[in-house]
Amino acid sequence: MRTFVVRQISTMIVVVVMFGAAATGVPPYWPSFRGPQARGFIEGAHVPTTWNVEKNENVQWKTPIPGLAHSSPVIWDERVFVTSAVSEETDPYLRVGLYGESPDHPEQFIHEFKLYCLDRATGKIVWEKTAHQGIPQVKRHIKSTHANSTPATDGGHVVAFFGSEGLYCYDMDGKLLWKQDLGYLDAGAFNAPEIQWGFGNSPIIHKDRVIVACDVNNQSFLAAFDLKTGKRIWYTPRDEVPTWATPTIHVGKNRTQVIVNGYKHIGGFDFETGEAIWRMHGGGDVPVPTPVVAHGLVFITNAHGRLSPIYAIRLGAIGDISLADDKTSNAHIAWSRLRRGAYMPTPIVVGDYLYLGNDRGILTCYTATTGEQKYRTRISKDRSGAYSASPIAADGKLFFTTEEGAVHVVKIGPEFELLATNQLNEICMATPAVADGMLVFRTHHHVVAVADTGGKN
Predict the structure, then answer these.
(1) Is residue 223 one of the residues assigned to a domain?
(2) Total structural domains in the chain?
(3) Is residue 253 one of the residues assigned to a domain?
(4) Which residue has the higher pLDDT, 111 or 42?
(5) Domain of 42: which CATH number?
(6) Residue 395 and residue 289: Cα distance in Å, rounded?
(7) Alpha-carbon distance values, 338 to 282, 284, 325, 423, 431 (Å)
(8) Which residue, 62, 289, 382, 416, is most buried by CB atoms nearer than 10 A?
(9) Per-residue pLDDT at 399
């Protein structure tokens, strides 16, 4: 059993629980948002069903990180990376829950946009780097932060994206290799420019490239940069309103696609050239969930406005595949539902089933290939909590985290069974990470990692 460590840096803390690689045989890496290929799970990881942060049961370490961020942790071998926006505010204002107002939080003072590297075994901060220092170019919503984008790593590089404050690439020892100014990225409401929500798309690394999707009000685009030099390889303009959905890479037999969510343009792009392969329209006007690939299908969901669809799109799609007004399928779309899509959380496919949990805590299970509904129920009977974090899966279990920090553990399968509910005792907006028997949660003031330690540390 490893030691419990607490290091007070400011008001934010990171908590981790884990046990050794020899016990699981699972490679300890979770390289970007939602892990490998954005699947949300790693095969074979053994993680506990219950833990208690307050009593330090199944908690390995707890490390404070200053500032405010909704970015998720990423993991490679013995290192954990997180970003944050640190300012003179000791406890920046944050309001969670389900509400309709869209106020922003004025912050006309200097922020430090930071990348932190932590030791995965002890939680000790190995290094921290300030990527940029200055007054944020855009405002943030009171439910948002200036560090929403999850970093990405390939074990040799770490890429951090801070929207209008730039794209930065470091080596594993914290040396800055390159940076790119991508301009003013206004990801506010397309139909109410006075409303600022904050940038949220995360970078992804594939082979020798960094892919970023920047759907904003001023000029939306998809771009690829050389991982070693930062030189732009291709740039594809998009006729699209702001989105907050990280792209997904799919490597097929004949081509590799960059798959993006959208309102006006859901589609796949050629990884080598950036050229569009397929496209469709028809969805919610605030796309947030990341595309998910399984069973030869791309699962797209979004919500807000007139529609909240779920689409199951065949990977061989080409051209304009948009559905006719009275259809729910065509040659390229295996099945769809025009309602019941998710506004915030990305769905997850484990085995034969697609699990889609919405921001109000309603979980629906479908047979992934056919769209047959197996169950639809509230995750929590007390109907409390909103959900922004996306679910992850490990060890036959699904983990759904409320904004208030309750983690509901649900058994994987075609029948609903709630196994446990664990409290993080803090706001949690970020999607967790899994690696080497360890769950890592990023909360308001902590990153919490949970694993089977056999009791208290």
Answers:
(1) yes
(2) 1
(3) yes
(4) 111
(5) 2.130.10.10
(6) 23
(7) 9, 10, 11, 34, 26
(8) 289
(9) 97
Residue 385 phi/psi, 5° resolution?
Answer: 95, 145
Q: Which residue has the higher pLDDT, 254 or 213?
A: 213
Checking if the pLDDT of 356 tops 70, the result is yes
Residue 320, strand partner residues? 279
In a domain, 343, yes or no: yes
Cβ atoms < 10 Å from Cβ of 165: 26
User: Which residues does residue 83 pair with via DSSP β-bridges, in sequence order?
Assistant: 115
Residue 437 lies in a domain: yes
Give the residue from 12, 131, 122 showing the smallest Cα distance to 67.
Answer: 12
Range list of β-strands (E), 324-402: 333-337, 348-350, 353-357, 362-367, 373-378, 392-394, 397-401
Tens of pLDDT, residue by residue over 18-31, are 433 333 444 589 99
Q: d(Cα 328, Cα 272) in Å, to the nearest integer? A: 32
d(CA 75, CA 96): 27
Question: What's the chain's Rg over C-alpha atoms?
Answer: 20
CB neighbour list of residue 353: distance below 8 Å, 6 or more residues apart: 365, 366, 367, 368, 374, 412, 413, 414
Report the C-alpha gap between 393 and 36 in whole angstroms.
Answer: 13
- Residue 143 DSSP code: T
Give the residue numbers spanning the domain of 238. 14-450
Band (167; pLDDT cuts 50, 70, 90): very high
